[in-house]
C-alpha cells in the first residue's frame, strides 16, 4: 500500500508542476479592417501645423457684476405721462363763449370756467392803449408782476387795445380784484359796469393732450380776439 501512496503523491506533484509551467492565456484582439489604406501617408513631425489654442476672453469686474446681477427691467416711459399741460382760453363775447364751450365739450377737455360772459356785470380793465403794440407791452408789464389772468382786446370794437383783467358778477368782487391788483403794483386798472359790447369769458383747461391742443389752436384762430395761452396747472 505504501507504494500506491507514493505514486499518488508523485502524480499530484507532476500535475502541480505542469499547471505552473503553462503560459498565461492571451485574449484575442479583433482589429477592424483599414479604411482607404491606400490614402494613408506618413508625415514628418516637423510638417505638422499645430492648432492654436483658443484665447480666453478676459473677464472684467463689471462683466462679473453684470453676470451675477439680473438686469433691471426697463421702465416704461409715459409721454408726456408725467407731463401736464394747462391752457387759458379767453373769448371776448357771449356768442364766442358758446362756440368755445361746444368745442371744449366735443374734445372732452377738463374745463373750469373762471369768468362767465352771461354772469358778468362789472369789468376790471386797463383803458385802451394807443395801439395794439402798446397794449401788448402793457400785458408784458402785467406778466412781469406775476399777473396772468388778463387778455388784450382785439375785436375791432369800442374797447380795442384795452387790457381786460376780469369780469365779475358783483361790484364787491370787482373791487376786491382791483385791490389785489393795486397791491401787486398795477396803477392803471379801473372798474366799470359791464358794457354789453364786451362780455368776455375765461376758461381754464386742464391736462390738455397734444391732439386737443392742436384742435384748440385751430378753433382759437377762428374766433376774432380770442386768446389761447399756456398757464400753470
Q: How is this structure best described in words?
A:
It comes from Chitiniphilus shinanonensis. Residues 49-76 are annotated as: Disordered. This is SPOR domain-containing protein. With 233 residues, the chain is α+β, with helices and mostly antiparallel strands. 36% of the residues lie in helices and 17% in strands. It is built from 7 helices and 8 strands. The strands form 2 sheets. It has a 4-stranded antiparallel beta sheet with strand order 2-7-1-8. It is rod-shaped, with a radius of gyration of 51 Å. Residues 61-82 have low confidence and may be disordered.
Q: What is the spatial order of strands in the main beta sheet? A: 2-7-1-8
Task: Kindly state the percentage of residues in helix.
Answer: 25-40%
Structural class of the helices, strands and pairings? alpha+beta
Strand-residue proportion: 15-25%
Number of helices: 7
**Main sheet: strands, sense, barrel:** 4 strands, antiparallel
Overall shape: it is rod-shaped
Give the termini distance in whole angstroms.
Answer: 135 Å
Indicate the radius of gyration in whole angstroms. 51 Å
The CATH topology of one domain turns out to be Alpha-Beta Plaits
Count of DSSP E strands? Answer: 8
Protein name: SPOR domain-containing protein
Pfam families: SPOR (PF05036)
Keywords: Signal
